């Protein structure tokens, strides 16, 4: 069984919330290949010891790099704790990333509550579940 590839992304004001969530679910996340935008990935690695493949910072193209993984069918889930109360200079990239998850039927969680439900689902680490990918 191949590991799930999971992306972890958080805006600056949401990084502590994502880090707390990762620590709560560290045993499950250890079983995944983790990718993240630059600053978030560095924080997760330094605070938890988890191995994280780091892409560029979100505003410098990291969101688009993760979007490319989605388009290439190389990402299984996205946990993106974005900050709805603070405008981000790369907001179009954020919207594009979330749009790609919908286009390619990739599970995405933007809040700790949704992330809890996704990661604790019996289907999350199961090799039996394969989401239907659209054919364009």
UniProtKB/TrEMBL annotation:
Catalyzed reactions per annotation: dihydroxyacetone phosphate = methylglyoxal + phosphate
Q: Mind telling me which Pfam families this protein's record contains?
A: MGS
Look up the record and give one Gene Ontology term from the biological process aspect: methylglyoxal biosynthetic process
Q: Which GO terms describe its molecular function?
A: methylglyoxal synthase activity
Q: Which PROSITE patterns match?
A: METHYLGLYOXAL_SYNTH, MGS
Q: Which residues form the MGS-like domain?
A: 1-136
Q: Which Gene3D superfamilies match?
A: Methylglyoxal synthase-like domain
Q: Which PANTHER family match?
A: METHYLGLYOXAL SYNTHASE
What name goes with this protein? Methylglyoxal synthase
The top of its lineage is: Bacteria, Pseudomonadati, Pseudomonadota, Gammaproteobacteria, Alteromonadales
């Amino acid at each position: 069984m191949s590991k799930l590839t999971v992306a972890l992304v958080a805006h600056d004001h949401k990084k502590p919330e994502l880090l707390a969530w990762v620590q709560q679910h560290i045993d499950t996340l250890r079983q995944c290949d983790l990718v993240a935008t630059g600053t978030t990935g560095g924080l997760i690695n330094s605070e938890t010891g988890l191995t994280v493949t780091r892409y560029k910072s979100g505003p410098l193209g990291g969101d688009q790099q993760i979007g490319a993984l989605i388009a290439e069918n190389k990402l299984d889930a996205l946990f993106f704790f974005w900050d709805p109360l603070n405008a981000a200079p790369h907001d179009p990239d954020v919207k594009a990333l979330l749009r790609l998850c919908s286009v390619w039927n990739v599970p995405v969680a933007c809040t700790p509550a949704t992330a809890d439900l996704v990661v604790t689902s019996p289907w999350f680490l199961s090799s039996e579940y394969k989401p239907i990918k659209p054919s364009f």
